Amino acid sequence: SAVTTISGTVAEINAAIAAGTAPTNYNTTLSAGTEVATDITTLAGADGTGTVDLSAVTTITGTVAEINAAIAAGTAPTNYNTTLSAGTEAATDITTLAAADGTGAINAAAVTAITGTAAEIAAAVTAMGTTPTDFDTTLGAGVTVAATDITTIAAGDGTGTVDLSAVTTITGTVTEITAAIAAGTAPTNYSTTLSA
User: What is the pLDDT of residues 48-68, one digit of tens each?
Assistant: First the structure.
């Protein structure tokens, strides 16, 4: 119980703690490799006043919210990859994660839906290292979207669809707007604003 620091993977540290009388407060230093985000936060919640050094971790898996909580729970790695769980993610959360992971890459292959504006979703698609196999996007009613954002989403959504039937205005060149309309479910009535 006088131990102050334990190093290893989360699984190894948990096994060590379970093998004897655990210290009340202890620091942990995680080994290089892949860790599950929720395992890191569980460890941080059990170490008393100790800290978790995850600076050597190379990949963290989970939802964006779980990964952010894990990063906040200790000393974050400078560069790390992330593998997102299946489910829905907000586009802005993905781009925020991409901005914080150094030279790391986001594997979003399991994500099934991305929410946000056309510009936010297009930015998220661009920010991913690995895009989902397929995801559907429904753009909001009464909105103006850039044609190139629509085609960026369509190019990255695998077998998914882009529903722009509620869009009221599309901006861009004639060629860009034509490509955007062809890329998804077109609105019945819409205005266009042509680029200079």
Answer: 999 999 999 999 999 999 999
Tens-digit pLDDT profile for residues 85-110: 999 999 999 999 999 999 999 999 99
Residues 69, 73: Cα–Cα separation, whole Å: 6
CA distances for 38 relative to 29, 66, 79, 108, 192, angstroms: 16, 6, 19, 18, 47
SS3 150: helix
Burial of 92 (0-12, 13-18, 19+ CB in 10 A): middle
Q: What are the pLDDT digits (tens) for 121-155?
A: 889 989 998 888 888 888 877 889 999 999 999 98
Q: Are 137 and 170 in contact (CB under 8 A)?
A: no
Q: What's the Cα-to-Cα distance from 113 to each of 87, 101, 141, 166, 185, rounded to whole Å?
A: 7, 22, 18, 18, 17
Looking at every residue in the chain, the average pLDDT score rounds to 92
Strand 162-163 and strand 137-138: the pairing is parallel
At residue 2, the pLDDT reads: 79
Minimal CA–CA distance to 7: which of 21, 48, 33? 33
The tokens for 1 are 């119980």
- Neighbour count for residue 90 (Cβ, 10 Å): 16
| End-to-end CA separation in angstroms for the chain | 72
